[in-house]
Design goal:
Aminopeptidase, eight-stranded mixed β-sheet, alpha+beta
């Protein structure tokens, strides 16, 4: 999927949102996740690399061939688990997270998932609420960062 979105300078940017094509793209997505979660947020690498990447469906956002966003889906029964949403610091506030979330929902529907679940960092709660997700339970801490469980029924 190729889309146009507003960039953080008031112009338009063109992003390509799609599944990773090969090991090299997976490595680029993993490098982005390390920068965002480990370097910026202080998450230990042992928490970021949880062993579920080989079974995951990975999506990336490309800007002129550069990976500027990534996320992962894993599947259990009729539920898709959305996780590891990361956007490069130079590409934030351009709608990339929303585009990745929308593409992940499409991929989950294609996998016949009836529900998508995630653990949102609470500072990003509005992103998910604005896209139809509802909170479940109380906030909790994961890797020292406050999160809350959320889900959405897929039609």
């Amino acid at each position: 999927m190729s889309v146009e979105a507003m960039d953080n300078r008031g112009g338009t940017a063109r992003f390509e949102i799609r599944e990773i094509a090969d090991r090299e793209e997976l490595q680029l997505a993993m490098d982005l996740r390390r920068r965002v979660f480990c370097d910026e947020q202080g998450v230990p690498l042992s928490d970021e690399v949880d062993g579920r990447d080989p079974e995951g469906t990975h999506l990336i956002a490309l800007d002129n061939g550069l990976v500027v966003g990534a996320c992962r889906l894993t599947f259990a029964g009729s539920t898709a688990q959305f996780s590891r949403l990361a956007v490069d610091s130079t590409a934030r506030r351009q709608g990339i997270a929303t585009l990745l979330l929308e593409q992940a929902e499409s991929a989950a529907r294609m996998n016949r998932s009836r529900r998508i679940a995630l653990h949102a960092q609470t500072y990003a709660l509005s992103l998910y609420e604005n896209n139809g997700y509802r909170t479940r339970g109380r906030p909790f801490y994961d890797a020292g960062i406050e999160h809350i469980a959320m889900d959405k029924r897929l039609g």
